[in-house]
Design goal:
Structural class of chain B: alpha/beta
Strand order of the largest sheet of chain A: 4-3-2-1-5-6
Number of strands of chain B: 18
Largest sheet of chain B: 5 strands, parallel
Largest interface: A-B, 21 and 20 residues
Helix content of chain B: 25-40%
Structural class of chain A: alpha/beta
Number of helices of chain B: 13
Strand content of chain B: 15-25%
Radius of gyration of chain B: 21 Å
Strand order of the largest sheet of chain B: 4-3-2-5-6
Number of strands of chain A: 6
Oligomer: heterodimer
Helix content of chain A: 25-40%
Distance between the termini of chain A: 15 Å
Bound molecules: iron/sulfur cluster
Strand content of chain A: 15-25%
Shape of chain B: globular
Number of helices of chain A: 8
Order of helices and strands of chain A: EHHHEHEHEEEHHH
Chain lengths: 177, 423
């Protein structure tokens, strides 16, 4: 079954107190290693960004259909899958970032979370709470903010779409039978 | 995009293009057909668990002939965890694969076994749970380590997805000093590039220094591209490598050279003429200095082994230095061949006897001190010289680990302190 490729939601933009994008957020800041024993995906959500100064309350401000906007090298560090799954648990539907850690990218794609590359999205006037739409197949953004609307972003590749449509890597494997 | 000018392709893009139906260009993510799918004792049991949980009651292996297990980290298992995990993987292999596709605890380091047995050939694609599987760049193959979920998926489907990397070119010219070897050249590159110098990139090695390297030397160079942050280091196979791989595999394979107008994101040249022996100080492999600058540090333990320097040629150099001499009284010297075949060669040519006479501890093939202490770990304050590829804090125990060539390691074992080898 095909999933919607046109995703609408409310943005949460991960910035510091000066209003700048936070780069190099590693997997320990996203999901601290003291919670690694948690295997139930629903329980994972509440620890998201528990170790990112200023964003500890993130789980309580997320609503269903959140579009997460992040800076450079998001998800650097260890290979833990929880750092992806915790966002899924909270209702984040897509992560748009300036760049991502290599293993994080593999893990996110494998678990069916669309990652969209938007090299200087943090320099736009996009704010938390803004309503926006992203078309995963064309990379087109619809927003009331003009500078956001005109942003060129990379659409999902065929591979990413294959896995996204199946749900995750293993489900995709089943669909090949 | 209309009439974009297409530049020529580097090697990695040609190998990938041979294994996908999609368009290949840097940053593109493609489905890649995998010729050899493997797991080792580390990660292997999780591969099996992933398959059983996600595909209950189904067949788990798309093509048994192309699927392998190689046990090498802790062989034979010296703790219960490894013993149990090996047994899970062993039983799975016996039930699902041809018997010869299980390289059990006697075989040696998986990447080397795959080269020797002709499982990996130039231009082939190979994945496994070993983060140094990119060592296969030494024979012009695409090898890549991945996590256990990714590998389970490849067992099941025969493919994986991969983001085509950019390529950088590193040209090394010159004849190293008489007492410098492939490891010194490799550490020399690490010294220049640092731990992120090749981050996310494929590296192509050229130049007279690289041309002169035999299979063992190419393996040494390719094995440390991981420590440079690179995806893989590729060396175009020469006649010697092509002959070897043909004999071992009984197969023919295409040999891809980079196009003359291939586009490189970086183009670096080194003159390593006369380069002196190098050593990497703790706590990271890029912390490299000339051995001559740190002589005199007392040494407690010396290891000649690993996927970086565990081949016959490496032991032959060490033997030249140790012949007829005794290891220093305060030094534990450990010799671990990379594979059973290397062990056999050493036995046949008298190297085992020679090392025995010099007072070394000689072990069966495997990853030696590298992963979880097949031949023991270091205690706090212990200084260890190893020919391996990583010296991060805590990886091989609490002691301080230095990385050097087999020649330097052997010389240090005799002197009981860090010393420049004489050849
Ligand atoms: S020797 Fe060390 S680096 Fe090489 S394969 Fe074994 S564990 Fe990995």
């Amino acid at each position: 079954m095909k999933k919607p490729t046109n995703l609408s939601g409310k943005a949460i933009v991960i910035k510091d107190t000066q209003g700048k994008g936070i780069d190099d957020i590693d997997t320990d800041m996203i999901f601290h290693n003291k919670h690694l024993h948690i295997t139930d995906i629903n329980e994972m959500g509440q620890h998201t960004f528990g170790n990112l100064p200023g964003w500890e309350e993130f789980p309580s401000i997320v609503t269903a259909n959140t579009i997460l906007i992040v800076g450079k090298n998001f998800g650097a560090g260890s290979s833990r899958q929880q750092a992806v799954d915790c966002f899924k648990a909270l209702g984040v539907i897509v992560i748009i970032g300036e760049s991502f850690g290599a293993i994080y990218k593999r893990n996110a794609i494998n678990s069916g979370i669309p990652l969209i590359l938007a090299p200087d999205i943090m320099t736009t006037t996009l704010n938390s709470g803004d309503q926006m739409t992203i078309d995963l197949t064309t990379g087109e953004i619809t927003s009331e903010k003009e500078d956001v609307q005109s942003k060129q972003v990379t659409p999902l590749s065929k591979v990413q779409l294959d896995i996204y449509n199946a749900g995750n890597l293993f489900e995709y494997g089943k669909s090949l039978e | 995009m209309g009439c974009q000018i297409r530049m020529g392709k580097p090697i990695i893009e040609k190998i990938i293009a041979d294994h996908t139906s999609e368009e290949v260009a840097p940053e593109k993510i493609v489905w890649l057909d995998i010729d050899v799918r493997s797991a080792r004792d580390f990660g292997g049991a999780n591969v099996v668990k992933n398959l059983e949980t996600n595909y209950p009651g189904e067949s788990h292996v798309a093509d048994p002939k192309k699927t392998f297990f190689t046990f090498d980290c802790v062989v034979p298992a010296n703790n219960l965890g490894y013993a149990e995990n090996q047994q899970i993987a062993r039983v799975f292999a016996r039930n699902n694969l041809p018997r010869e596709n299980l390289y059990d605890v006697n075989a040696g380091i998986g990447s080397h076994v795959m080269i020797e047995k002709g499982v990996a050939t130039p231009n082939s694609t190979v994945v496994g749970t070993d983060s140094h599987l990119n060592i296969l760049g030494a024979i012009g193959a695409f090898g890549q380590g991945m996590g256990d979920q990714d590998i389970a998926f490849t067992f099941k489907t025969g493919k994986t997805w991969f983001e085509v990397p950019y390529t950088m070119r590193v040209t090394i010219d010159g004849i190293p000093a008489k007492n410098s070897f492939a490891k010194d050249v490799t550490l020399g590159v690490l010294e220049q590039l640092g731990s992120k110098g090749a981050l996310g990139k494929s590296v192509e090695f050229y130049g007279t220094t690289v041309d002169a390297l035999d299979l063992a030397g190419r393996i040494t160079l390719a094995s440390q591209v991981t420590e440079m942050g690179g995806i893989i280091g590729l060396i175009t196979p020469d006649e010697r490598i092509i002959d070897y791989c043909k004999k071992r595999s009984g197969k023919d394979f295409p040999i891809h050279k980079a196009d003359a107008d291939a586009s490189y994101v970086e183009d670096i040249q080194y003159d390593f003429g006369g380069i002196e022996p190098r050593i990497a100080l703790p706590p990271n492999p890029a912390n490299v200095k000339p051995v001559a600058e740190i002589t005199g540090i007392k040494v407690d333990s010396v290891v000649i082994a690993s996927c970086t320097n565990g081949r016959y040629e490496d032991f032959a150099v060490a033997a030249r230095i140790l012949k007829g001499r005794k290891v220093h009284n305060d030094v534990m010297m450990k010799i671990v061949p990379a594979t059973q075949e290397v062990y056999g060669q050493m036995l046949k040519n008298g190297l085992i006897e020679l090392f025995y006479q010099s007072g070394a501890i000689i072990s069966n093939p495997g990853c030696a001190s590298c992963a979880s202490g097949q031949i023991g770990m270091t205690g706090e304050g212990e200084v260890q010289i190893t020919t391996g590829n990583r010296n991060f804090a805590g990886k091989q125990g609490k002691g301080d680990t230095y990385l050097a060539s087999p020649a330097t390691a052997a010389a240090c074992a005799l002197a009981g302190e860090i010393i420049v080898p004489e050849i």
